[in-house]
Amino acid sequence: MKFKICHVTTYRYDEPVTDSVNEIRLAPRTNYRQSCYHHSVAIEPNAPLLTYEDGFGNRIHAFTVNNSHRELVIRSESTVVTHDNDGVRKRVLTPEEDWATLADDAVQNKYAEYLIPTPYTEANDDVAAFAASCGRPGAGVYEQTMELVSRIYEEFEYRPNATRIGTTPAELLEGRAGVCQDFAHLMIAACRLSGIPARYASGYHFIGDLQTRAADFEQASHAWVEAYIPGTGWLGFDPTNNNRVDGRYIKLGHGRDYLDIVPVKGIYRGTPNQRLFVDVDVQLIDK
Predict the structure, then answer these.
(1) Sign of the C-alpha dihedral computed for residues 170, 173, 176 and 180 taken in this order
(2) Helix, strand, or coil here: 238?
(3) What is the biggest distance separating any 2 CA atoms in the chain, rounded to whole angstroms?
(4) pTM
(5) In the beta sheet, which residues pair with residue 51?
């Protein structure tokens, strides 16, 4: 599938501000399941861009606006072709081989950063109990991961504004409602407690009509989970929609949790009173 994505972030300030220093992670990755053919970033007021990669391989654009301004606009446009091949498991191991592979020191060391708790994936006894309840006797790693996807989808309500940016998995368990970011963090915490390396992925999910290629609803960024499945590697799972990641998903980047891949972050000098507007448009231009 071929997509055109336009992501516009606008900050408006009550008074003029200066010395705005920012970094953005809005460049789609090119990997085995998608190819980014075009990506551009435009800043208003105009500012030169510095480009580099972080430790996770995510493309970062950094810029500074020193002059006084009351509005900052960041426009990111991309053309991406996705390949619906993330559902293919290269080699299916027995459950015993699965768990033995994850317990191996080489795997533990290689994926250590995706096995330890982070600020947004910290687990308490309730999270540990939830993770344990998703384990079925004789299940392999893939089956247990899919059980987590189903349980989160069935037991938690998708409700915008029910949580905040820093909501923890324990708080989500208590409130039983949240958004894709919260569900991803809970699943990551549960995976790591079970010894499954898991990471936070961000991007877009096209859920419009594949026939008309239309999406007549408000669109937004999306978050899901990538888990390491022995015999195959990293696979994507979406607990918000009870899906495996397929050609409808366009990935921007991944990290240990949301803090590693915040789409736009920065600091500036001036009034704390600001308003944020985000407009996302994902168009399917070729199936």
Answers:
(1) positive
(2) strand
(3) 63
(4) 0.93
(5) 61
pLDDT tens for each residue of 237-274: 999 999 999 999 999 999 999 999 999 999 999 999 99
Calpha distance 283→263 (Å, rounded): 20
* Interatomic CA distance for residues 132 and 16, integer angstroms: 52
pLDDT-flagged residues of the chain (< 70): 85-88, 208-218
Domains along the sequence of the chain with CATH: 2-82+262-286 (2.60.40.2250), 95-261 (3.10.620.30)
Contact between residue 276 and residue 13 where contact means Cβ atoms under 8 Å apart:
no
31-77 residue pLDDT tens = 888 999 999 999 999 999 999 999 999 999 999 999 999 999 999 99
- Centroid of chain to Cα 135: 24
Identify each DSSP E strand in the chain by its residue range.
Answer: 2-24, 34-44, 50-53, 59-65, 69-82, 157-158, 177-178, 198-205, 222-229, 233-238, 243-244, 249-255, 264-269, 274-286
57, burial (CB in 10 Å: exposed 0-12, middle 13-18, buried 19+)? exposed
Residues with Cβ < 8 Å from 228, sequence gap 6 or more?
Answer: 102, 107, 111, 114, 196, 197, 198, 234
Give residue for tokens 């053309």. 79
**Distance separating alpha carbons of residues 159 and 138, to the nearest angstrom:** 34
Calpha distance 185→203 (Å, rounded): 15
* DSSP one-letter code for 259: G
